[in-house]
Specification:
Blueprint (H helix, E strand, L loop, with lengths): L10 H6 L2 E2 L6 E2 L4 H10 L11 H20 L17 H15 L5 E4 L5 E4 L2 H16 L7 E3 L8 E3 L12 H24 L1
Antiparallel strand pairs: 1-2, 3-4, 5-6
Helix pairs in contact: 3-4, 3-5, 4-5
Length: 199
């Protein structure tokens, strides 16, 4: 895969979206350390992520799963949060996810500096990336914006996003993926029904 998709409206949700189709045929987008480096670059967290190893890959994946667990089951003890309750974590899984996010949120952020020409430089390593993602998750979960967090309306898609549309009626993670698929399927269904009625 050449490009990652950044349609969630939050860094932490874009990382959670690197594992697709969680209810069915799971697709892992972070299969190697170089995939993590590419995601970091495309997310514009660091200018040069540097070498990534298997341990860094595992740490990023672990934080990703913790973020996904918390967002899907937040607020604690409230099963009526608007997200499907299938696959709800156990209390121990929830506590582990919370500890993972809180531990990572204590890590340093990427270092931002201006060079002599006025160009922004972003430096750091995997700790700084984890810190930035975890702080974004903490910010989302503790903010009023969390109430606008939704799961894609495609029943197979498990991507999460923040609906900042004016009407609050966004249904799809992105039109390029799920939205267009739905529209095309609806069109084919209407045409088929129309053909049957004409015969």
């Amino acid at each position: 895969m050449d490009e990652f998709v950044f349609v969630s409206g939050r860094l932490c949700l874009d990382l959670a979206g690197t594992k697709l189709w969680r209810r069915g045929l799971r697709t892992e987008l972070l299969t190697s350390p170089s995939d993590v480096s590419r995601w970091i670059s495309q997310a514009e967290l660091l200018d040069d992520p540097g070498p990534m190893d298997a341990r860094g890959l595992e740490r990023v994946r672990r934080l990703r799963e913790a973020v996904y667990t918390l967002v899907r089951s937040w607020p604690p003890g409230d099963p009526s949060d608007g997200h499907p309750s299938d696959g709800a974590p156990s209390d121990a899984e929830f506590r582990d996810a919370l500890a993972e996010v809180n531990d990572a949120a204590r890590l340093p952020p990427p270092r931002h500096q201006l060079d002599a020409s006025g160009r922004l430089t972003r430096t750091g390593g995997v700790d700084e990336v984890l810190g930035a993602v975890a702080r974004d998750a903490v910010d989302l979960l503790s903010s009023a914006q969390f109430a606008k967090t939704k799961e894609c309306a495609n029943p197979d898609c498990t991507r999460l996003f923040v609906d900042v549309s004016r009407s609050g009626a966004r249904r799809w993670c992105g039109m390029a993926e799920c939205g267009n698929r739905h529209k095309a399927a609806s069109y084919r269904k209407r045409k088929k029904q129309q053909a049957v009625m004409e015969n």
